[in-house]
Amino acid sequence: MSVSHVADCPDLGPACYGAGPKPTPYNHHIDQVIAETVLDASLGLTPWLAVETRFSLRVADVSPSYSELDGTPKEVPDDIHHHDETLVDPTDPWLLARLGHVHDDLVGVLRLGLSFPVGRTEPDPYALGREGEWHQHLQAGTGTFVPIVGFGLSYFAAAQSKTPVTVGVSGIGFLNAYENAEGYRAPVRVYATSRAAISFLDRVLTPFVDVTLAHEGEEYWQGEVGLEGSNIRTELYLGAGLGWRFYEQWSVDLTTRARVATLTDAPTFTTYGLFSLGLSTSFDLWDTSDESPAPSGPPIVEERKGGVVEFEKK
Question: Which H/E stretch holds residue 255?
Answer without folding.
Answer: strand 250-262
